[in-house]
Specification:
By secondary structure, the protein is of the alpha/beta class. It has a single domain, classed as Rossmann fold, CATH 3.40.50. It is built from 7 helices and 7 strands; from the N terminus they run βαβαβαβββαβααα. A hairpin with a 2-residue loop joins strand 4 and strand 5. Helix 1 packs across helix 5.
């Protein structure tokens, strides 16, 4: 099995997104999957120009010559594509959205009816693209804030939804680092992510038990809000003191 992971966080490998991905990828590899991670901020990907050259002038190929061609090549060769993003304004980051818009060459411009609505069919070369997996975290404690992002990916998958969805409220509690080992308050969570990776590699989906475990709050909502507010106040105070002494 081949898995392409797209880390859409502007913080790259210093992000909470990276902390969540690390044990998940470990689980994939433990089960024998071949995994490649691309940090989107490090790629040279321009904005879609809306020229539609990839539909008419050079069907299936974008006229822009940048790293997106490599991303598409790797996506075509993958069994799963993981879209990983922090929640920004209730959606994916601009970095990941820019990449997503550049996947237009994968679809044919013709309109085909699927059930009760029309859509674009995949081109022949893209008919076995990786199935989507969505992984996201946010600074709010509740999962309800992911609603718009989840709905976006439901539309992207023709109403089916991703093969697996992992949503982590209160992501800032992770401290932006991944510490392997049995100790630490979130060892249970990292173990569950590792198990999720193994299940995707073996079965292509999460078990109900693992899915339920990953929905467990990292910290009780009110406790998280109190800790977050205290952290913000502390950071503001430190900033004021530094300005006063400079």
């Amino acid at each position: 099995m081949r898995v392409l992971v797209l880390n859409g966080s502007p913080r790259g490998e210093k992000s909470n997104t990276h902390a969540i991905l690390t044990p998940f990828i470990e689980g994939l590899r433990e089960a024998g999957a071949e995994v490649e991670t691309l940090v989107v901020r490090d790629l040279d990907i321009g904005f879609c120009q809306g020229c539609l050259a990839c539909w008419f002038r050079t069907p299936g190929e974008c006229r822009q010559k940048d790293d997106m061609a490599l991303v598409l090549e790797k996506a075509y060769a993958s069994d799963f594509v993981v879209f990983a993003t922090p929640l920004y304004h209730f959606g994916m980051t601009a970095l990941l959205k820019r990449l997503l818009e550049r996947t237009l060459p994968m679809v044919d411009p013709r309109l085909v009816k699927y059930g009760d609505r029309y859509g674009h069919p995949l081109r022949a070369a893209a008919r076995k693209p990786g199935r989507y997996i969505l992984i996201s975290n946010c600074g709010f404690p509740e999962r309800v804030h992911f609603g718009a992002l989840v709905e976006h990916f439901r539309y992207l998958t023709g109403g089916r939804g991703p093969a697996a969805t992992i949503l982590v409220g209160g992501g800032e509690a992770l401290g932006r680092t991944y510490r392997p080992g049995p100790d630490g308050p979130f060892a249970w969570f990292f173990d569950a992510l590792r198990r999720a990776g193994r299940e995707i590699a073996f079965h292509g989906r999460l078990s109900p038990e693992t899915d339920k475990l990953l929905q467990r709050p990292l910290v009780p909502d009110d406790d998280y809000a109190a800790m977050a507010n205290a952290s913000f106040e502390g950071a503001l105070k430190e900033e004021r003191e530094q300005r006063e002494t400079s």
